[in-house]
């Protein structure tokens, strides 16, 4: 036929690949292994263009590796627990399980339509007991090794809905449903001891040389290693206040000491003084995220207590309770240096406390006025014996004195905190612990795993449905047999995604994974996903891998050898006169303007933004596949922008891709020419093979596409020859990773053996990569006068003769003899007159 028809072809080849089990990964294969992984999706409803772009990139690499002779693992699954399913349950009265599973079915169908080379036999969903049961077993292993512990910690509490809120449910300090001011409340929660790994996680970053620098830097900052000093201020009436600082050099700039509202001294005062108790209640309002605490208005209460400066017995500092001091960081107390800390400056300005300069760019600036906090390094000023020392020297000197005189100790501090994994939600992995009054927190015996989530729960009132289930939590203590209570908190969904790549690599029924099999695949060779996961997911997965290594379950330090973070898919937005967003389907072009089809009113065609439901600029992949076929969509996703940049969706772009698919088809179905050389075509082919391979290897998919475009143009223009026919066959193999359905159909039309998917990646002849013609500049007295085309490697005499006999040059010379001729082979001839 003269047109490639995706509607008929796509599914035919998808079925063939499936029948032939082309993408099944064989762990026992002797071939070199390649593990290509894209971050698995949350089953929110439908696949969006961002997914399509992400998975297309991974797919090109997976197919390329397969053609190179690797045994490829390219799996897909579902990050299936989480809040949206519970919200849907509350809003639409559907069970989170059926909502999630039906979304998975829809999205799986959508992915299959795109023809991804995925090993569907390894599909997993984290919400199924055959996944989370193994997670519970791993949790218990970590518990046994002391890497899981329980501790009181602050959560966001909605006093109206009487429920704990996740950070993302706190909006501007208020509960997202009730609108009530959120309070901080203490609850017993489970933690993973990630801080034990802070130093290794930091050092490990140095080994990740196939990760983007920006991601490594973000992780480094998140871990936040710093040297500091922990020391005690004495209270004149006895007792002490211990503080932590990363700027001991500013100790002479202290103007107050501030303690957290949760600090024992604050709590002791509150027990006796109602004004203190009132202040603490007020200070505890607002969310628990660092960002919220940073931006909230600074509130303070002067306790009337004082402490003595450790380097000056005559210097008393007031003790305040302040809302910006966190209880679970450092010691829950600090000394304020308003001149050089932003929060302290704001606090001191509000409460009229002294602001003094103790750091300056140079000693000459000691008296320069401070109009804002100067958070600088420089030299110490107004600081007695520290004056003139650099910031680093002054820090070291204060630490030295503190240690020598016994009032403090140098510390290494990490900003990283232990990972709180308790969630007071239903739709998550049940924490496999039973609470007994006599025995405490008892692990569920492994032969009783999985602890299965009950299906019969209600969502009509706020709170955790597991708490109010009539029977689920009532169990006997596994140790003493007395009535006890099941833990009703579930695990943070980041736990589920911290080890799924291991389960993909090895999935025995009776244990989480087989170490030898998993290690045959791991680490993931190339991981591809959104930069929004640059910190948490990637850090947790790195931690989980190291934790498994520490307890002897896996011998692996880093789970992801290569990381690539792709850009977003963006699209124009449209806004009606009343400011509401309109979808592309609701508007049409009229001349240079856009109008709302229904009302005929003008519409502003606005900025290009990330596709999102709220802005109604989403394009549904299904509709596009229906219209243009899978390959055109895949092609467009790869073609327009470098993969790390944003890609703007456009109809022009997808249509261009669809036209290109047909151009390749027409070439493939042009008559085969049995004989005839064409050196230029052969050279172009070999260059394209090299260019496409190098581009895919470097994840520069747009460059691979550009190289294919060039080859196609050359072949369209070339006269028939055997060389051209051969180039067309090879072209089909080269486009296969990007446009696999077209490639199979074209391969069959060309009478190729078997399927394209089984063809090895073509080799290029390096000798054909070099141009065998070069351009020679001809200068007269140093001025460029002419250019010549000559065979590469032509000798000096021949070049000189060729230059001198060129019409243009002999006209210029008017019969004169050159004084001298300088020849640089393959480059230039300079004639000096
Ligand atoms: C004196 C000082 C002077 C400080 C100065 C900073 C600048 P990072 O670097 O993020 O680790 N701090 C100590 N404990 C705190 C707590 N529980 N809640 C809130 N802030 C606390 O932060 C360390 C600095 O944060 C410490 O150093 C302390 O203020 C404050 F020019 O001490 B600094
Ligand atoms: Zn017991």
UniProtKB/TrEMBL annotation:
It is an enzyme of class 6 (ligase). GO terms for molecular function: ligase activity. Keywords: Aminoacyl-tRNA synthetase, ATP-binding, Cytoplasm, Ligase, Nucleotide-binding, Protein biosynthesis. Pfam families: Anticodon_1, tRNA-synt_1, tRNA-synt_1_2, tRNA-synt_1g. Residues 220-402 form the Leucyl-tRNA synthetase editing domain. Residues 38-170 form the Methionyl/Leucyl tRNA synthetase domain. The keyword Cytoplasm applies. A motif ('KMSKS' region) lies at residues 610-614. Residues 416-572, 609-650 form the Aminoacyl-tRNA synthetase class Ia domain. It comes from the Bacteria. ATP binds at residue 613. It catalyses: tRNA(Leu) + L-leucine + ATP = L-leucyl-tRNA(Leu) + AMP + diphosphate. Residues 678-795 form the Methionyl/Valyl/Leucyl/Isoleucyl-tRNA synthetase anticodon-binding domain. Its EC number is 6.1.1.4. Gene3D superfamilies: 2.20.28.290, 3.10.20.590, HUPs, Isoleucyl-tRNA Synthetase, Domain 1. A motif ('HIGH' region) lies at residues 41-51. InterPro entries: aa-tRNA-synth_I_CS, aa-tRNA-synth_Ia, Leu-tRNA-ligase, Leu_tRNA-synth_edit, M/V/L/I-tRNA-synth_anticd-bd, Methionyl/Leucyl_tRNA_Synth, Rossmann-like_a/b/a_fold, tRNAsynth_Ia_anticodon-bd. The keyword Protein biosynthesis applies. It is found in: Cytoplasm. Transmembrane segments: none annotated. Belongs to the class-I aminoacyl-tRNA synthetase family. This is Leucine--tRNA ligase. It comes from Sphingomonas astaxanthinifaciens DSM 22298.
